[in-house]
Predict the 3D structure of the following.
Amino acid sequence: MAVELWQQRLKESVTTVDELAQRFGIDPEPLREVTARYPLKITPGYVDLIGEVGDPIWCQCVPDVRELAVGGYPDPLAEAHYSPVPAIIHRYSDRVILLASNNCAGYCRFCTRKSKVGSSDHGVSFREQREGVDYISADERIRDVILSGGDPLILPDTVLEDLLARIHAIPHVDIIRIGSRVPVTLPERITPALCQMLRKYAPLYLNTHFNHPRELTPDSAAACAMLVDHGIILGNQTVLLRGVNDDAATMTELLRVLLKIRVRPYYLHQMDLVEGTAHFRTPLQTGLDIIRTLRGPVSGMACPHFVVDLPGGKGKAPLLPDGLNYRHGKAVITTSTGEQVDYPDLE
Ligand SMILES: *Cc1c(COP(=O)(O)O)cnc(C)c1O
Ligand code: SF4
């Protein structure tokens, strides 16, 4: 089969610290231990967005020795507990996550699944995917299937279509969602052929993942436009990252430009308590302050829900500026079922 342009571009990604050293003049030695543990991959387009060492693009994709810090939880969301079969995470009765791929176009240093993505030990086999589809078929409560991973759009069109067609054919499934960062990291992947295939499986929602206004390039805007023009409804999930987007001005600009390119901001995620990502975390109050600043001056259309995924698999809890409580000086969050959960907030 002919290699497509996006596959060729993907092959040209930066995958070693020596390439980074050559290009940016940094010392590669301290980073070898980091890449021995967590994979490195930066697409040619994304590496070109780096303006200088340590800038908001750099921080998201270049390994950092702080990733070796101990602490946090390897599986903070207790996914294993909610995984009836290996490719499925079923925490809410009416919707499931189906792990469609374990690879991404590029690896984000702050990834919630950083101990799993890109690792061959956690690959999702064809058989496991089929088992996942069978699981969805057998549970009539499931209306909403979220293809995630990893990045489902890293799959070739034929493989992706096979999966979408099987899910689309299940009578009780109302909608399919795809979570993908390729509009940001590999916009070449959004081809007319892909869009024409995807439109057959409407209603199809795609939540992408822009974190910084500098990621909104003409190429990524064109990729989003092509998707929307094919009837795919776009949302965006942003992770609140220290030193990247944790100020109201940066966030406001990001959200406004997203609306302009027809991408509706959906979630602003508090950084999960994942091992190796502590240097990205902000106190809960930072997100609340940003939300408070947005409300009013910025269109409600542009305002995402600020959510915290509670440790122990207790689920996502939306936080509002007046919704954070303290008990004996410790943060307490109320879940959707009314349970009060202690949250290990930054002191
Ligand atoms: C976030 C999440 C979903 C989707 O939740 P929505 O709030 O509907 O976007 C589904 N399953 C799991 C396990 C999740 O973490
Ligand atoms: S694209 Fe998503 S799944 Fe992949 S490394 Fe980044 S955050 Fe993780």
Summary: The chain has one domain: 5-343. The chain has a mean pLDDT of 94. The pocket of pyridoxal-5'-phosphate (ligand 1) is lined by residues 89, 91-92, 95, 97, 146, 316 (CB under 6 Å). The two ends are 55 Å apart (CA to CA).
